[in-house]
Design goal:
Largest sheet: none
Number of helices: 4
Distance between the termini: 31 Å
Structural class: mainly alpha
Radius of gyration: 14 Å
Strand content: under 5%
Length: 83
């Protein structure tokens, strides 16, 4: 993990872009809370790297559109007994 908050925000953004990861997955990978990831990406990243912010915003918007599908699949797996 990086030393400064701005570097951490950039690292989070790169991880999410490269892996298509969700906020929850990024938080787990870096060992920080989901609210910290949100704050870094929504408030700090646009100030330090606007181009990276637009890229990560596209991934986050896609994840938001797909979240109801992921929730349904998780529920299905839960009741099928595969989890």
């Amino acid at each position: 993990m990086s030393d400064t908050i701005e570097e951490r925000a950039c690292e989070l953004a790169v991880y999410i872009i490269e892996n298509g990861a969700t906020v929850r997955a990024a938080a787990k990978h870096f060992g920080i809370s989901k609210s910290t990831v949100h704050k870094d990406l929504q408030q700090r990243l646009p100030k330090c790297n606007a181009s990276l912010y637009t890229q990560v915003r596209q991934v986050l918007d896609l994840n938001k559109q797909e979240r109801h599908i992921r929730g349904g699949m998780a529920t299905r797996q839960k009741y099928k007994g595969t989890i």
